Amino acid sequence: MACPFCEPLDTPMIIYQDPTVFALLNNAPINPYHTLVIPRSHYAAFAELPGDLVSHLFQVVQKVSSALRTMCAPDAVMHLLDDDPSGRGFNLVAHLKVHLIPRYVNDRVRIDWNHPPAPSRNERERHAKDLRDALARFLASEASN
Questions:
Q1: With contact defined as beta carbons under 8 Å apart, do 81 and 57 qualify?
Q2: What does R_g of the chain's alpha carbons equal in angstroms?
Q3: Cβ–Cβ under 8 Å, residues 5 and 95
Q4: How many CB atoms lie within 10 A of CB 95?
Q5: 49 burial class (0-12, 13-18, 19+ CB within 10 angstroms)?
Q6: Distance (Å, rounded) from C-alpha 83 to C-alpha 74?
Q7: With 70 as the cut, is the pLDDT of residue 89 above it?
Q8: How far apart are CA 97 and CA 22, in angstroms?
Q9: % of residues, the chain, pLDDT over 70
Q10: So what's the architecture of 11-114 in CATH?
């Protein structure tokens, strides 16, 4: 099946576009003006994006977020990044996108952070060390390329 974000057809919903990214209203919004900012090139994982695209993507997210705040005066704007390289269905479309969702007191939108009890401090310290080590390996391999 073709990716609906690689060649968007619902062009009246596009609110911004340039050669590398575009923004459009979500077709199943959580709240009115729920917007997606999407790279034109197909990426499933945030880690795949080139640095210049990351920078540009978030500059556009920042501008659209400012426009949302001006336009609909939300109490907050939730910024969520969809990343589903596993293809296991965490997202309906496995094309990276940033959701900008205007939020209001009493809007009844909830993220269920249903998680197990917090790990011990020792376990969290081990997790921090594991991530530091993984990051160091990544940075070393990146420097050698």
A1: no
A2: 18
A3: yes
A4: 20
A5: middle
A6: 25
A7: no
A8: 10
A9: 93
A10: 2-Layer Sandwich (3.30)
- Which amino acid type is present at position 70? T
3-class SS shares of the chain: helix, strand, coil, % to 5: 35, 20, 45
**Which of 48-57, 110-119, 136-145 bottoms out in mean pLDDT, i.e. has the lowest?**
110-119
Most confident of 60-64, 91-95, 111-115, 122-126: 60-64
- Residue pointed to by tokens 């575009």: 22
| DSSP, residue by residue, 55-93 | HHHHHHHHHHHHHHHHHH--SEEEEEEE--TT-SSSSSS
Predicted TM-score (pTM) of the model is 0.84
Residue ranges in the chain assigned as alpha helix (H):
51-72, 121-144
CA atoms within 13 A on the CB side of 91: 19
Q: Where are the domains of the chain?
A: 11-114, 119-145
